[in-house]
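A reminder before we start the practical. When you read a complex entry, don't treat the lines as separate problems. The point of joint prediction is that each chain is placed relative to the others, so the output describes one connected object in space. Small molecules and nucleic acid strands, if listed, are placed in the same frame. In the example below there are two entries. Take a minute to note the order of the lines before looking further.
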Amino acid sequence: MAYWLLKTEPAVYSFADLERETLTAWSGVRNAQARNNLLAMQPGDLALIYHSVTQKAVVGVAEIAAAATPDLTAPAGSHWVDVAIRPVRTLPQAVTLAQIKAEPVLAQIGLVRQSRLSVVPLTAAEFRQVLAMGHAVETNQPAG
Amino acid sequence: MKSLHLLALALSVLLPLSAQQCAPGPAGAAGAGGLDAARLQRTWLHAHEEDHGDTLIFRPNTYAFRPSRGRTGFQVEPDGALTQLDIAPTDGLESHKGRWRLEGRTLIATFPDGTSQPYRLQVLRLEADKLEATRTFDH
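Here is the predicted structure of the whole assembly.
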């Protein structure tokens, strides 16, 4: 299993939107490195959802439900892709960017090192550290 | 002589009308294909979930879209300016300034500064809250 971080502007698409929809295509990625990360995702991988711009915090966990397929929001014939994701749980406590930057275990996290990248791979240790800071434990089962 | 006078009178009335109907672009008049340019002049966002086949569906930006990442669009202004709204490499929208004109029922979008790919939007149907079109990019 691999771990990822997905950034989104909550005014455009929030974790609450994902919970309402229960499944969505994570579309609208237009960066080559981010696209390659989408292509590397496999069903069952877990992703932290990060609200950018206004909140600047990790707010939830999602599971990759299906591997990459062509992004239907992009012009036909383009090479952009999306993956299907479903919500797993809201973090009991959002983990802010400031908290992440202050945590030595997360010194190398892609969210900080490549701040403009919207799809970021994480190590298992980084993923679990953010979960711990958000008072959550690792699971791919939706919260009851 | 009288018939010549009448013909001249008729031409003096009809020719300007004809020229207006054929005038491309942002004047607000109907294009040659009967397209009302004024109805195009707003911000249209891609309702990609409504696309079918090669037909793209656009809705006004005031439409109650379902939340979606990757919603792009364009703004058509009366003065011939067009703003293309694309997704930025860093997420979020980025705008590209261009120009538009009508040829019949085809909106031609150009970007003199080369920041976006020019395209032609063949308008199949234009309603107050819905634009159906096919798009081809110029290479």
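Discuss with your neighbour: Chain A has five helices and six strands. What might explain this?
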